[in-house]
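Predicting structure from sequence has reshaped protein science. With that in mind, we have picked out one protein's residues alongside their backbone shape tokens:
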Amino acid sequence: MKTKMDIPDKEGRKRLVIVGGGFGGLKLARKLRSDKFQIVLLDKNNHHIFQPLLYQVATAGIEPSAISFPYRKIFKKRKHFHIRICEAQRVIPEDNILETSIGALSYDYLVVSTGCRTNYFGNDGLSQRTMALKNTAEALFNRNQILESFEKAQNTSNLEKRKRLMTFVIVGGGATGIELSGALAEMKKFVLPQDYPDLDMNLMRIILVDGAPRLLSAFSKKSSEEVANYLLKRDVEIITSVQVTNYENGTMTLSDNSTLETMNVFWVAGVRANSIDGLAKEAYGPGNRLLVDLYNCVQGYNNIFAIGDTALMISKEYPKGHPQVVQPAIQQARNLIQNLDRKERGLEMQPFVYHNKGSMATIGRNHAVVELKNLRFGGFPAWAVWLFIHLMSIVGVKNRLFIFVDWMWSYFTYDPSLRVIIKPLRRDKP
């Protein structure tokens, strides 16, 4: 057993441990104000990240600080609330103990809200050779990679090497894939020709690869066609119904035996839940998600809950579980807040019912697609809705202002001014 983590509570409140400060965990931590609980929030980072806009950090559209907000600033006035920056490693449910990288912590209630990581579908070697987009560090690495590729392309006289450096392959045709493709297409049209006048931008290729027959497979066929047509007009090459079998030494091999020569591969093809270890084998479902009942209680346990991307609630309407997007996580957190209070008062808990508010994805300047329950639209109105919803979802008025200014500056000048290569400091070991 690890050393015990010391978080005293003189008044003897029940301890609620939340693992992960993503959308679900943050909502639960912010809105659960019952004096019956001592709340402990655990996260590997000291800040919440607005992941839907990470692709704009990667393409030099906004700064990472604009979509990040420190937990200690959010909760600075909360009583009976504690934050620990660490990694949750294993739960010992029979003892109500959670082992972390800084010690063991007892709990009365445990909420697993650990989100997802990139899924390489068994080919984990790709994680070292491709670019993921799940956190700030990855987004900054991607930004450096994009900008350095053009610097290297300008410095080489080898035409084939230059072509590989200026070829960008995005694997995954979901919302992140098409948003990233659209952002790169806008850079190619508006930004890069000004920064690199000596380079022939006709050599730059943006290739979107997806294993499904069409892009945005979770959307309607009409939206998929609209997105594909828009990207094709922006010179994005689209390859569907094929999988990536290998990528090594600048050569990508596809399942139809064709190859692509590139030094830049973004892998946004899927996700896998970051479910915590230590629970019974029967508690884990497909994609490493935790099987939960209608109250988000993990199968086989009465005081361990899971919400958001890591929770798998199977129902008639959602036989594969709820979509791993923001809204289910937030709605599950709201439901759990009520149920924890009801549980403490000896009342029956209320089942979770997901209200699908629709889906949206932006493709680029003045264009997006929005699908509501009985309404679908695209173009500029959809783009305006996408901007508003994302802007209002960001934590902090100051952050919203910064992003709004960046967006407006880029919109009217066609020139985002954040193309800075920031390399990590490397010190020689003594």
